């Protein structure tokens, strides 16, 4: 019953473990880093998918939007970014929304911003993750366009370049 409820509420697996422990059960979901030797096949699959997207940029992220892998096509796209934003533990939402990085290159920035904010808000709704709350607060402090309705809940929004 507990697991059905958690599934209906879309509680992330990590938080389902917390529910299980609180109810007196053992952990059900084990978390491993992508570098874990037991995930070698998964890591190779991620690398193959990223490589298969070339010559287009592609990346893999974790639950906090931290880049865990990327293909070579991403490098020229972020070459002009501030070095502090490209330091290890690169947050791709921060990178795309930061006024000194990709924001100026996204032709449909208003739509992209609304989509990303809706995605992060949804993650916060189901997880209550403090890291995501802080990330959203930071992003909302960035210069925002004057427009109404950040309610997009679509699966993906294409980014159109404003560069010639």
Written description of the protein model:
The protein has 164 residues and is mainly α. The chain has 2 domains: 1-31, no CATH class; 33-164, no CATH class. The protein has helices at residues 2-8, 13-22, 40-52, 74-78, 92-97, 109-127, 130-141; strands spanning 59-61, 67-70. Strands 1-2 form a two-stranded antiparallel ribbon. Helix 6 runs antiparallel to helix 7 (130-141). The longest helix is centred in the C-terminal third of the chain and has 19 residues, at 109-127. The model is unreliable at 145-155 (pLDDT under 50).
Topology (elements, then pairings):
Blueprint: H1 2-8, H2 13-22, H3 40-52, E1 59-61, E2 67-70, H4 74-78, H5 92-97, H6 109-127, H7 130-141
Antiparallel strand pairs: 1-2
Element string (H = helix, E = strand): HHHEEHHHH
Q: How large, in whole angstroms, is the Cα Rg? A: 18 Å
Strand order of the largest sheet: 1-2
Low-confidence stretches: 145-155
Percentage beta strand: under 5%
Count of folded domains: 2
Instruction: Give the N-to-C terminal Cα separation.
Output: 56 Å
Summarize the structure.
Helix content is 44%, strand content 4%. It has helices at 2-8, 13-22, 40-52, 74-78, 92-97, 109-127, 130-141; strands at residues 59-61, 67-70. A two-stranded antiparallel ribbon has the order 1-2.
Defining traits:
164 residues, 7 helices
